[in-house]
Every structure is written in structure tokens, then in C-alpha cells.
Amino acid sequence: MAVEILEIQAGHDHDICNIIKKVGEEFGAIGEGYGPSDAEVVEMSAHYGDQNGSLYLVASMDGSIVGGCGVAPFSGSNQTCELRKLFLLKEVRGLGIGKELVARCLAYASQKGYKECYLDTLSGMTSAISLYEKFGFQHLDRPLEGVFHSGCDVWMLKKL
Question: Whole-prediction pTM value?
């Protein structure tokens, strides 16, 4: 069960879109105000790339995409980035894949010169929140100005 972490390519778009929507549905993140409804989800490879200071990684296990995570400028900032769309299929959670994806995204953010990393999520995603806390993300009382995921109820920030 070898896991390979890859930068997203157009050939991954369909699989990661399905994973994001499936996991979103599992946690009630359906409709406007939630990441799975963002327009970029149907063509992630077109929205992430080094040329715009962003990166989206997918995890492949035995040749199948099992999840992904990305980082991109927050609201056009070159100081603050956002950790985005960490979604893993249920059957691969707890194997350290999310940890590796987040670590690589944060390393990229630091390399790009971002000073802090923001994220928003749902309180029901307790395993993800625990992972974020282990990486040093601190809870915020409210979202940063410019957030468009109004359905999220957990907001976190990490100094890079």
C-alpha cells in the first residue's frame, strides 16, 4: 500500500472532485458556503499552480486517488495563505496521509514567503482539527475578513 503524493494534473480532476463532494456530503458540507460547492472543485488543476503562489497535492494509493490538500493565497494576499480542501476517503484516514499532505503544503507556503496560514473547517471534522492543532494552528473567534465559506464554524491561523 504505497502512497504517492503528486501535484495535481488535469487527469486527477474528476477523481478529486468526486472525493471532495463525497467527503463533504459525509460531513454535511453541502450547498453554498462550503468548500465542496466552490467552482474550482470541478477543475482543480486549472486553479492551482506555482505561477499564482498555490499548490494542490493529491495522494495516490495503489494507482487510485484517495485524497488531496492545497494551499493558495488568502483573498489575494502575498502574506497570508489558506490551507484548502483537505479531503480524504474514509478508508484511508488515520494512515498519516493527511499529515503528509499538510506538511508539504505548509513547507510550500513557507518557501513562497507567506507569513501565516489560515483555514476554515467544520466542528464535526474533529480528526482534521486535531491534526491542525498538532501543526500549531490556533483557534480564532471569528473568520478572517474576506472569507466566503459562511457555513464553516471553526477558523484557525498559524504563523509560518
Answer: 0.93
